[in-house]
Design brief:
Blueprint lengths: L8 E4 L4 H12 L4 E5 L2 H8 L5 E5 L5 H7 L5 E4 L8 H22 L3 E5 L11 H14 L4 E7 L2 E2 L5 H11 L3 E4 L4 E2 L2 E2 H13 L6 E5 L5 E2 H12 L5 E4 L1 H11 L9 H6 L21 H9 L4 H11 L1
Helix pairs in contact: 1-7, 4-5, 6-8
The structure holds NADP nicotinamide-adenine-dinucleotide phosphate.
């Protein structure tokens, strides 16, 4: 059964980049959202302006906490993900947590479960990120719930995504040596990703489907970083380096609060992150190109984002 408008939804991992875009789309349909966080104070200002959104402090790794959180919701959406960490941290955040969420949904009789995976997720993938995402997908497929899995390539949009990350880096770096420079990716707009999640609540045809979410254009990582530099007014020479050097570089960068690359990311870049079949036709719309959004992203964003950034400074 489609989830009716205004039904309460639990969004785990809903306080981040994708979650903020998704929350904005869900509240326009009248949904009441529960968004647990490890640190409500850190995130609440980006989401607090949205009507019907409740951000709470909760340790969602605790099955007892999940057993209290899940009942009363019409659907559970799991967006939790990390990009950097040890193999154990990836398993903890992606595999073990997914298992606990599925168990809580089964126990509470909440059947609709939407799962955020990633393009390239594969139990035999080249990185811990990909392998743990692949293991989590297997749990979802075996869950017996009414599930949909989304597997996006790199996601761009307002907020903390690769565009702002590389634009800031390019301001400071005179040259950009890149591991995986020839890896190809197919960036997809965060609003298209969020819209796909909304569609999976409302359309039973999307149940039991694992769908790759990709944009209309394919770039090598090198071309993508060069394009961002040019558009941001900081064109820099971008060149490839071997993976072993990339891992040394990533090791050094990992001390930064927001490292642009980790050793595990270098391993992910051993494979292309594209789907030549393109955006799923079953979703029924054309995805938006990075080129159409890039100027807005680099111009400082929407009025609401500028307001939030001013608010943060105050
Ligand atoms: N961004 C991309 O380009 C991209 C591409 C493909 C797939 N994805 C997937 O999309 C999902 C969302 O990505 P995003 O870019 O929105 O990430 P994000 O901005 O870093 O947000 C991550 C979310 O997960 C929660 N979280 C992180 N680690 C956690 C942990 N150990 N335990 C519990 N909660 C944790 C965070 O909550 P609190 O910090 O509030 O607790 C936050 O709400 C992830 O699953 C990611 O793998 C992203």
């Amino acid at each position: 059964m489609p989830i009716p408008r205004c039904a309460p939804i639990l969004v785990l991992g809903g306080t981040g980049f994708v979650g903020t875009a998704l929350a904005a789309q869900l509240v326009t349909r009248g949904h009441e959202l529960t968004l647990p966080s490890r640190d409500r104070e850190k995130v609440k200002e980006d989401l607090i302006l949205l009507p019907g959104v409740t951000v709470i402090d909760a340790d969602i790794h605790d099955p007892a906490v999940l057993a209290e959180l899940v009942p009363g919701h019409a659907a559970v959406i799991n967006l939790v993900g990390i990009l950097h960490g040890t193999p154990a941290a990836f398993r903890h955040a992606h595999v073990e947590l997914t298992g606990k969420i599925i168990a809580a949904a089964q126990a509470a009789g909440v059947r609709r479960y939407l799962h955020m995976s990633a393009l390239g997720a594969d139990v035999a993938g080249t990185s811990s990120y990909q392998r743990s995402k692949g293991e989590a997908e297997a749990l979802v497929r075996a869950s017996g719930l009414d599930w949909t899995i989304y597997r996006p390539s790199l996601i761009f949009g307002q907020g903390r995504c690769f565009v702002s990350l590389f634009a800031n880096l390019l301001k400071l770096a005179p040259v950009v040596p890149l591991a995986g420079a020839n890896a190809r990716m197919q960036p997809v707009w965060v609003e298209d990703v969020a819209r796909a999640f909304v569609a999976a609540l409302e359309d039973d045809a999307l149940l039991g489907q694992s769908l790759n979410l990709v944009g209309p254009d394919i770039y090598t990582l090198q071309a993508l970083v060069s394009r961002i530099g040019a558009a941001a007014g900081h064109p820099r020479p971008v060149f490839g380096i071997p993976n072993w050097l990339g891992k040394l570089q990533a090791g050094a960068l990992q001390i930064l609060p927001r490292p642009p690359m980790s050793r595990d990311n270098v391993d992910s870049l051993k494979r292309d992150n594209i789907d030549p079949a393109g955006f799923p036709t079953v979703l029924g719309w054309q995805p938006t190109a990075l080129e159409a959004i890039l100027p807005t992203l680099l111009a400082g964003g929407r009025v609401r984002d500028r307001f939030l950034s001013l608010r943060r400074r105050v």
